[in-house]
Design a protein that fits this description.
Structural class: mainly alpha
Oligomer: single chain
Strand content: 5-15%
Number of domains: 2
Strand order of the largest sheet: 2-3-4
Largest sheet: 3 strands, antiparallel
Distance between the termini: 36 Å
Number of strands: 12
Shape: elongated
Mean pLDDT: 80
Radius of gyration: 31 Å
């Protein structure tokens, strides 16, 4: 409960960049607002992709990217995720633990290969001359500045395909369309209007397209853009945001759109991946494109998403969405490189080098999550970019990292299989909660907006405290404590646990520890003192002194969840006349001090005497 009052983690050893992170500003009450997403995924009006060009790339990785054109962004969802991205770990810090967009997600969702040569090379080219050679047209000085080519020029010059086009012209149009796909989906920069033609030399030999690791380059680009956008000064974000959004929709139920499930015309029976997906032709990401979507009520704004993430439950995140059945509907391109999904290695895309640490998210691969070893993401690499390095050979610059990538097979992470939901008190979760920031919405709110999810979380934590205090005291309570008080504490403990289960927060409870066992003689002596038969049901006293039998509500039973009226109150405590003559008048001094403190009651002497008089 202290997380909302503090401005950082309890243990600062992990979040070393908190001072410049967006979350710091949010916790201080400064509204950083939504980021501007600079990618352009919608279809370009007036631009026509010829059937010959599509047929040419049909058997390559780029066909899957072509099928994703038209996907629109959820800016609020992306902005909320950026607020939870940590450059120190290359992971999203959620209430349920860390989560990452991995190489597995890239290949399954986008169909891009992991194996292959890195995306890098020299950049010292005569770009106008090279563009003329490989595209057959020469851009003007207003369209080409350094290695930045205006996307509009490509759209204007390469729409459709001339009827008399020979093989060389077809190849030129294919290269132009591949650049457009890179500029809009794979490697969009924050300008939103240009494409870096440094990728063009890799397209010289079109038969070599699938020999490159486009998937690792795309993921490296996403990581770099997330790291930069998480800085409090950032106003926009570029990069392959289509990958981030598809990842979120597959794994997180918060804000997930609704898919239709009509019959696929090419197969008998319904297609479980949706009407827009072609079985064994499309990557998994295609099922989210151009379909009917409905945004859930209450989660349509950045504050709404921020608030929902503040109280995320385990059942709102799917750790393993890519089941064997799902993969069976995809082409081999989407899973052939599964051996490389868990490599701990640097991913490279020209000037960009970003580390991949699947060991931090073992649950995403069906393994038990342990406390991860120190993962150095090398923040100094973020200062390396293409600015002022127009003639640099990036293969030479990043040779040590390239060598590491080539040997990535020696650094595969493998965990212990585990399909049990992680307990709130698991060693990893205890370690994790102490070193991160779980919630961002301040409470109580500083504005007129009141966070409903945050309030629920606070109420749940209050019930946890009541439950744990009662449970501890019941196990340690002296035998001479009056039976009605023991009953009241027991009812209060059970009501708290069942209320938590009713609202889906029972995972917060400490696993029950069996109470200490007293000797049989001590138990019998206690029963004799209270005039209670050891086989009789629970005795509840009324104000008039009559006894009525009632059964103790079963713990964690939804059907037997007690109401507040069923809990013993001061008015239902036994009067002195109803007690056994052998029983002494109960004294509040018998009530353990820790229990009084746990309930927040100040038992001064005057109040004690007043309570005794009432009884």
């Amino acid at each position: 409960m202290e997380q909302h009052q503090q401005q950082g983690p309890v243990n600062p050893e992990l979040l070393t960049q908190q001072e410049v992170h967006r979350s710091k500003a949010i916790l201080e009450g400064r509204d950083v607002g939504s980021l501007r997403c600079r990618s352009h995924l919608v279809s370009h009006k007036g631009f026509l992709v010829s059937d010959q060009v599509v047929d040419f790339i049909r058997d390559t990785q780029f066909f899957f990217i072509h099928r994703l054109v038209g996907l629109k962004f959820n800016v609020e969802l992306i902005s909320a995720l950026v607020e939870r991205w940590r450059p120190e770990t290359h992971s999203f810090h959620l209430t349920i633990g860390e989560a990452i967009v991995t190489l597995q997600d890239v290949q399954v969702l986008l169909g891009l290969r992991i194996r292959g040569d890195i995306i890098s090379g020299p950049t010292a080219y005569n770009w106008p001359l090279l563009i003329t050679e490989l595209l057959g047209k020469t851009p003007g000085s207003e369209d080409l500045k350094g290695a930045s080519l205006r996307i509009g020029w490509l759209l204007e010059k390469f729409s459709g395909l001339p009827e008399d086009a020979n093989e060389d012209v077809l190849h030129q149009y294919v290269r132009a369309y591949l650049l457009i796909l890179m500029a809009t989906i794979m490697f969009p920069d924050k300008s939103g209007n240009d494409i870096q033609v440094i990728y063009l030399p890799l397209l010289r030999d079109l038969s070599n397209l699938d020999n490159y690791s486009w998937g690792s380059a795309v993921l490296a680009t996403l990581y770099r853009n997330l790291c930069r956008a998480s800085n409090v000064k950032s106003k926009d974000i570029g990069g392959p945001l289509v990958l981030l959004q598809l990842w979120a929709w597959e794994r997180i139920s918060i804000g997930r759109p609704t898919l239709t499930r009509p019959v696929n015309a090419t197969h008998h029976g319904p297609n479980p991946l949706g009407s827009q997906h072609q079985i064994r032709i499309d990557s998994l990401g295609r099922r989210w494109a151009s379909v009917i979507r409905k945004r859930p009520e209450g989660v349509t704004t950045l504050i709404g998403y921020r608030d929902a993430f503040d109280s995320m439950r385990h059942d709102q995140f799917t750790w393993q969405p890519y089941t064997r059945q799902i993969l069976s509907f995809l082409p081999p391109f989407c899973y052939d490189d599964s051996d490389d999904w868990t490599v701990m290695a640097p991913m490279i895309c020209f000037d960009i080098v970003e580390w991949h640490f699947p060991n931090r998210v073992a649950r995403q691969f069906g393994w038990k999550q342990i406390i991860p070893l120190n993962s150095d993401t090398e923040p100094k690499l973020h200062k390396v970019d293409k600015r002022g390095a127009s003639s640099r050979n990036w293969i030479e610059k990043h040779q040590p990292y390239i060598a590491n990538w080539v040997r990535r097979g020696d650094f595969r992470f493998r965990g212990e299989e585990d399909d049990i939901e992680m307990n709130y008190f698991d060693p990893y979760m205890v370690w994790y909660r102490d070193r991160t920031i779980l919630r961002l919405n301040p409470f109580p709110p500083q504005a007129t907006y009141q966070a409903p999810f945050g309030a629920t979380e606070y109420l749940a934590q209050g019930f946890v405290n009541v439950h744990n205090t009662c449970d501890t005291e019941l196990r340690q309570m002296p035998l001479e404590v009056p039976p009605h008080f023991r009953t009241m504490v027991s009812h209060l403990r059970d009501y708290s646990s069942q209320s938590l289960e009713h609202v889906g927060y029972s995972h917060l409870l400490q696993p029950t520890v069996e109470p200490r066992q007293e000797s049989s003689s001590m138990v019998q002596e206690s029963l004799n003192l209270m005039n209670v038969d050891d086989d009789a049901p629970l005795v509840q006293y009324t104000r008039r002194g009559r006894r009525s039998n009632s059964s103790m509500p079963a713990r964690h039973s939804m059907s037997s969840m007690p109401s507040m009226s069923s809990m013993p109150a001061m008015s239902s405590m036994p009067s002195m006349s109803s007690m056994s003559p052998t029983m002494k008048k109960p004294s509040m001094k018998k009530v353990p001090r820790s229990l009084r403190k746990g309930f927040g009651i100040a038992f001064d002497e005057k109040a004690r005497r007043r309570l005794e008089d009432m009884m």
